[in-house]
Write a structure and sequence with these properties.
56% of the residues lie in helices and 14% in strands. It is α/β, with parallel strands linked by helices and 178 residues long. It folds into two domains: 125 residues, Rossmann fold (3-Layer(aba) Sandwich), CATH 3.40.50.2300; 38 residues. A five-stranded parallel β-sheet has the order 2-1-3-4-5, sandwiched between helices. α1 links the parallel β1 and β2. α2 packs parallel to α3 and α6 runs antiparallel to α7. The longest helix has 25 residues. The radius of gyration is 24 Å and the shape is globular.
């Protein structure tokens, strides 16, 4: 399945050039020429990534697209595309995952997009994993793993089993007393 990207920029030349580069590289690409159109597309279709210009019809237009992408239930990666770089804390506070500065060499652009998609997909898979079980066993395993010397895997496993067995025996004895 091709990964789907939404490009939002009010410069038609930038949209068409980036669309062609990304499609040649195997992406499915939609475009929007305004923040309003971009926000509408974010709500009506799912994207793996949204790349938006910062300044379009207003100085806040890019931030509005980022906010719409962040509120989407499918959680796309978000990149801010700009010719006027802003401080890291500014684009990060807007909710972007990455700032792409134009103009940029095609190879570098593709590398940055691939890297962002990979890290974002890894982050999403962590979010979708169930939480580890709670209780004494989880605590014992964590403690044993944290204090394990290198190369002592088998002895740690025995110690964990022994410790868990003791805890189970104690809790069983408590249950019998009641």
């Amino acid at each position: 399945m091709k990964r789907r990207i939404l490009l939002v920029d009010d410069e038609v030349a930038v949209l068409l050039t980036m669309k062609a580069v990304l499609e040649i590289s195997g992406f499915d690409v939609d475009t929007a020429a305004s923040a309003r159109e971009g926000k509408s597309k974010v709500r009506t279709r799912e994207y793996h990534m949204v790349i938006t210009d910062l300044r379009m019809e207003s100085d806040a237009a890019g931030a509005e697209v980022i906010a719409a992408a962040r509120s989407a239930s499918y959680h796309p990666a978000v990149a801010l595309l700009t010719a006027f770089p802003v401080a890291d804390e500014d684009w990060q506070s807007m909710g972007a995952d990455k700032m792409l500065v134009k103009p940029m060499h095609t190879r570098i652009l593709l590398e940055q997009i691939e890297k962002l998609l990979a890290s974002h997909e890894a982050k999403l898979s962590i979010w979708s994993k169930p939480a580890p079980p709670s209780g004494a066993r989880g605590a014992v395993v964590v403690r044993a793993a944290a204090t394990r010397p290198a190369g002592k895997k088998a002895s740690v496993k025995r110690a964990v089993r022994k410790q868990v067995g003791k805890k189970s025996a104690r809790s069983g004895a408590k249950a019998k007393k009641k």
